[in-house]
Amino acid sequence: MSWLTQAAKGIKAITSQKSDIPDNLWRKCPQCSEVLYHRELERNLWVCGSCGHHLSFTTEKYIELLCDEGSWQETHAGIVSLDPLEFRDSKRYKDRIKATRQKTGKEDAVICGRATIGLIPVSMSVMDFSFMGGSMGSVVGEKIARALLDSLQYREAAIILSQSGGARMQESLLSLMQMAKTSAVLARLRKEGIPFISILTNPTTGGVTASYATLGDVNVAEPGALIGFAGPRVIKQTIGGDLPEGFQSSEFLVKHGMVDLIVERKDLKDTLVRTLQWFVEGRDVSVRRPPRG
Ligand SMILES: [Zn+2]
Asked: Are 2 and 77 part of one and the same domain?
């Protein structure tokens, strides 16, 4: 066998080995382009070790990260979208929903539950960007409103974690009505002195930003999250002027009072525990407290 054939065989062996490596072993950081090892990313809660960019984190991972182990109990499952408008874009909405449900194994773009965080009982809703861009239609609005009503009923703090492209266009006006519905329940919570903490992650935009996501008693954002209402191009056209640098980021918004705190993912749980404790301990607010001892 000539050296050339041997070398060719060697190359073939290497390339066939390479094809055995799964594609998802490495990820490129969308901000600094550093190539990141999957296992390392898992350890770092999907935060780039090189530049600190917060990559997207699934709904399930957020629940595991924030809630006390074994305390999460899902509520209001089984509510699914109908198609009263018989909407059709490139596909029928009914078919789009069906395909998305099959692909993701999820019912819609939010999951609600009751849990404890640092032993403090909460009613919590976590949005899911993997389901039609985390868009808010009637199901998302209804489930969040019901989870907030649980906070009223059981007198426990409310938490909503947002990751959303905004209202779901396929449900048109029905989507927009969810802004009013969720905001109305939040007004009742405020009247009753029940705390609401909103967590904004990348991205939180449109009707979600314009309703519950920015109505928290405390609005907490992850670093570098895109948070805004309309896209920069639309605003630029409307106001006919240039926009300040980075004006739709957590860092810009914390300077201008729309966000209260920027918290890295690894510190989110501790921050929630401290904030909840501040609300429920030693204050004249009638909410459920953690058990003594
Ligand atoms: Zn990076």
From this structure: no
The answer to whether residue 292 sits within a structural domain is: no
Distance 227 CA to ligand 1 centre (A): 19
Distance (angstroms) between ligand 1 centre and the Cα of 28 equals: 8
pLDDT tens-digit map of 187-245: 999 999 999 999 999 999 999 999 999 999 999 999 999 999 988 888 989 999 888 88
Beta-bridge partner residues of 164:
204
The sheet carrying 120-127 orders its strands as 73-75, 110-117, 120-127, 157-164, 196-204, 218-221, 261-262
Whether 285 shows a pLDDT value over 60: the answer reads no
Q: Does residue 291 lie in a domain region?
A: no
Query: CATH number, domain at 259?
Result: 3.90.226.10
Q: Is the pLDDT of residue 1 over 60?
A: no
Q: How far is the CA of 119 from the centre of ligand 1 (A)?
A: 34
Q: Give whole-number Cα distances, 56 to 129, 186, 291, in Å.
A: 9, 27, 34
Contact call for residues 143 and 96 (beta carbons, < 8 A): no
* Per-residue model confidence as pLDDT tens digits over 122-145: 999 999 999 999 999 999 999 999
C-alpha 10 to ligand 1 mean position (Å): 35
CA dist., res. 101 & res. 111, Å (int): 14
Ligand 1 midpoint to CA 38 (Å): 13
Residues 32 and 72 in one domain: no
Collect residues with CB below 5 Å from ion ligand 1.
29, 31-32, 34, 48, 50-51, 53
Which pLDDT belongs to residue 169? 94
Give the chain's domain count: 2
Q: What is the mean pLDDT of residues 101-123?
A: 96
Read off the pTM.
Answer: 0.88
Same domain as 232, residue 119:
yes
